[in-house]
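Morning. Coffee machine broken again, so started the prediction first thing and wrote up yesterday's gels while waiting. Chain of 235 residues, entered below exactly as on the submission form.
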Amino acid sequence: MLIAGFPAGAWGTNCYLVAPAAGEECVIIDPGHQAAEGVEEALEKHRLKPVAVVLTHGHIDHVASVVPVCGAHDVPAWIHPEDRYMMSDPEKAIGRSFGMPLLGELTVGEPDDVRELTDGARLELAGLEFSVAHAPGHTKGSVTFGLPQAADIPPVLFSGDLLFAGSIGRTDLPGGSMEDMLDSLARVCLPLDDSTVVLPGHNEHTTIGRERATNPYLRQVAAGQGAVQAPRRGM
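Came back before lunch.
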């Protein structure tokens, strides 16, 4: 399996291209702010053909390049219905105080073909099967995408802004909820095998086993205790 990722734009959002191997079809995950050029470079480098864009949630730092990427390759975008409005109304989704000057340079709106994600769905795309888990907390429509173990590659969880290395997504933006975040961590993350790789991991990838042992949020959920204060960095 091939996973090619890069940080894009002012927020450094991680965008991923996932394929069974180089030279095959691929899925693009979270093409955010200024990600279109990086997507094209990765497609050319690995000789990939995109078949879909899938979105972990609707914040502008994760969806800003959806329209140009989907338009250039005539592919659909998949998003949870709770977050669909964010593609056309990013200001309502994050408020005026978060990078609003950047909106003038962004292409907001929906691509021509938008399809809705549901909890427990299995997306068969590019020869891969992604398991979809609705994981509200960061936004009402946040989801994760899981891939099973493949040959010598461990299971992978594309966590969006649910779980990072040592932290979780912020819950103080519109639609955020610490109660929902803790429930999502308990339902989606705790049952996973320790070997599951979590992406993104900010500056490094991490695993569920490492997070179970060191992440204060996941540790408190596992212990059935109340939450520590939610982080406030980034989006």
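Residues 70 and 76 are 6 Å apart (CA to CA). Going to sketch it on the whiteboard this afternoon.
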